[in-house]
Amino acid sequence: MFKKKINTENLQATEPILSDELDGVAMMRKVRELEIKSKKITTHLFTGEYHSAFKGKGMSFREVREYYAGDDVRFIDWNVSARFSQPFTKVFEEERELCIYLLVDTSASNLFGTVQSRKRDMLTEIGALLTFSAINNNDKVGVIFFSDKVEKFIPPKKGRQHALYIVRQLLSTTPVGKSTKMEEAIKFFNKATRQKSIAFLMSDFVDAVYENDLKVIGGRHDVIGLRVYDKMDMQLPEAGLLVVQDFETGNQKLIDSNDELVQYTYKKRFIEQSDWCKNYFRKAGADLLHIRTDEDYVKILQQFFIKRS
To answer: Which of 83, 191, 246, 251 is buried deepest, with most CB atoms within 10 A?
Structure first.
């Protein structure tokens, strides 16, 4: 599988911000910023869309109230109506109790970024947004961080404090492994939950060995892939001789970015990766979103939620 990440003398990619560079005060400030941003977006955009996109288990009886014109006559409680000599109707509410899992790729390839933010930064923001959207809808949220192994598991819970803990981990988790084995995270998720859950698989998907495992969870759970990529993942700049480095293996290579064959091969491999990813998710019966680091991920997610609902 071709994996390319650029680190050049002539062209500088965004420098990684290591977790140990964030002291306690800076961490608290960043967590608070993400909470405020996520809640603002959730309140003004996602409240209805998220709720409608992910349905609960069913409807449960809540109370009986007086019947009003326009109420569904099928829900009239005839026993209560006869007792009080006027019509009463049953009121139901949706049983949410949804369980949301974020499977977050922490491998080194996500440290790459040339426009606005690194891929990992965008994954962090999206993860925070999905977390607060779920919490605001009284859903449980859990997280599986992975590289070439499962790095950390946060069991699903409800509540604001749990959401803040997840955001802190999204910001600070430093993986032991640098490469990617997505199948390990998928297998762990499949064993970790017995009930049907909603899984957001968040990665740049440079790892292609996950087709069969994706089919397994696609048949049991509601799976949504969020593929984040950088503009330079698609096309090399014409900048002459460049030293390119694979962030996951550390291997370096000197290339001529002005060479037409190099440009063609580079773009062709990105398209091949995209096609493999689309086919894997389609065969698994799962959804897949492509989000570039310089795009408005809020609009992309909102449109997806509206389409689902």
So the answer is: 246
In a domain, 6, yes or no: no
Summarize pLDDT for 7-32 with one digit per residue, the tens. 433 333 333 344 444 677 788 888 88
CATH of the domain at 194: 3.40.50.410
The DSSP letter of residue 137 is: T
> Whole-model pTM?
0.77
Query: What is the spatial distance between Cα 54 and Cα 222, in angstroms, rounded to a whole number?
Result: 9
| Three-state SS at 94 | strand
Query: In this structure, is residue 13 part of a structural domain?
Result: no
Interval 151-185: pLDDT, tens? 999 999 999 999 999 999 999 998 888 888 999 99
Domain that holds residue 292: 19-54+96-308
**What ranges in the chain are assigned the alpha helix state H?**
24-41, 47-53, 78-84, 119-136, 160-172, 182-192, 211-220, 231-234, 260-283, 297-308
- Backbone φ and ψ for 59, nearest 5 degrees, come out as -120, 140
Burial class (CB in 10 A: 0-12, 13-18, 19+), 82: exposed
| Cα–Cα separations (whole angstroms), residue 179 to 1, 176, 248, 291 | 12, 10, 5, 21
Q: Based on the domain organization, do 67 and 212 belong to the same domain?
A: no
